[in-house]
Amino acid sequence: MKIGILGSGRMGGNLGTLFAQLGHAVTFSYSRSTLRLDELARNAGANARAATPREAVTDADLVLLAVHWTQVEHVLGQAGSLAGKIVMSCCNPLNAEDTELVIGHTTSGAETLAARLPGAHIVAAFQATPSEVMFDVFAARDRALRPSLIFCGDDAGSKAIAADLINAVGFDPVDAGALRIARFIEPFGMLSGVLAYDTDQGPEWAYRFGRLDRLFG
Amino acid sequence: MKIGILGSGRMGGNLGTLFAQLGHAVTFSYSRSTLRLDELARNAGANARAATPREAVTDADLVLLAVHWTQVEHVLGQAGSLAGKIVMSCCNPLNAEDTELVIGHTTSGAETLAARLPGAHIVAAFQATPSEVMFDVFAARDRALRPSLIFCGDDAGSKAIAADLINAVGFDPVDAGALRIARFIEPFGMLSGVLAYDTDQGPEWAYRFGRLDRLFG
């Protein structure tokens, strides 16, 4: 699959690196530093390259949107149309200080994005899992017990492809239903942030969901 | 401990029964049916009784508030003052159809409750765990891996007592911090409801949170 990364910070960088290691053709774009973008692509191996947002999305089957909420308009302006693309968004609609959701309750970042991107198939995923845990989860992907990864969206085919990627990087995908469920997932993302970052235990936090009889295998 | 139950439906009934079995003096109150209230108390054993909301709270060290959000004003009107009490609230601020939160984003049910009950020590807990899983979790409480139970509140002493109860009924308590974090926990409660009730796998749903290296023991 051809995967374009819009936003090559920690989350976009880590997930894009894993996607490249899994054999997908990954194009990293949109980093504060061109040097860091090039280094990221080099470290991710032969399947990865660095380019502009527009180049990252042109031939992409799937676009990973992984910028801070305050940067969404800027990167989308550079990327051009995403109509017909699967857009897997990790974005939580955070304020600049990362302390509050700027929208919620009666809508969500994911729904706002869907309205902003007509024709794109939005899948909300990776809202509630710190980027810092990704490589460890991937390394442990063959264990019997895996962390869960909640996602939602309105297009079944796009969700199936997203679920395959979620599974490939080491999580058990958990389909929460329609895109509007992002209204609940994004606050859960905030809760995960509190639990991951507001303690001294380190950010390698994860969660597992399930029926009690299968929660632990 | 003397525990008063305001709202003896499934959640109040199940938790109150477990508290009574653990040796606490439990007073059930506020059920749609007096017959069912009496039966609940009888089935919960020698430590349990049925009474009015006012009687349930009079001598209580801790009050469990477990009514539907639409009934909160009604039961609080019957209960009288809760000043000085620990009030462990399971309430999610749901509409009558259980489909939406009626408040959120910039406040929460738990914060609203704290404003409504000056002098009470509110601990928000059991928002995101179906009542149907309680007895099975209790039965498995000696296993190495337990489900988590997220809670929050502003009074450290009250939270410590709530955490002991959460632990005693078989969950690993997870302190999310101040009461305002209920803004994130209540939507997570909605998410848990979607995952527990909107599938055909049964409502015995639970979750576990933690650092990856200890998530599975």
Q: Would you write up a description of this structure?
A:
The structure is a homodimer of 217-residue chains. Chain A has one domain: Rossmann fold (3-Layer(aba) Sandwich), CATH 3.40.50. Chain A is globular, with a radius of gyration of 16 Å. In chain A, helix 4 links the parallel strand 4 (62-65) and strand 5. Chain A has 217 residues and is of the alpha/beta class. The first copy, chain A, has an eight-stranded mixed β-sheet, sandwiched between helices. The longest helix of chain A has 16 residues, at 182-197. Chain A contains nine helices and nine strands.
The end-to-end span of chain A amounts to 31 Å
CATH superfamily of chain A: NAD(P)-binding Rossmann-like Domain
| Average pLDDT reading of chain A | 97
Largest sheet of chain A: 8 strands, mixed
Secondary-structure-derived class of chain A: alpha/beta
Instruction: State the order of secondary-structure elements of chain A, H for helix, E for strand.
Output: EHEHEHEHEHEHEHEHEH
Give the helix tally of chain A.
9
CATH architecture of chain A: 3-Layer(aba) Sandwich
Helix content of chain A: 25-40%
Number of strands of chain A: 9
Which band does the percent of strand residues of chain A land in?
15-25%
Protein chain pair with the most extensive contact, residues per chain = A-B, 41 and 42 residues
Assembly level = homodimer
* CATH T-level fold name of chain A: Rossmann fold
Give the total of domains of chain A.
1
Radius of gyration of chain A: 16 Å
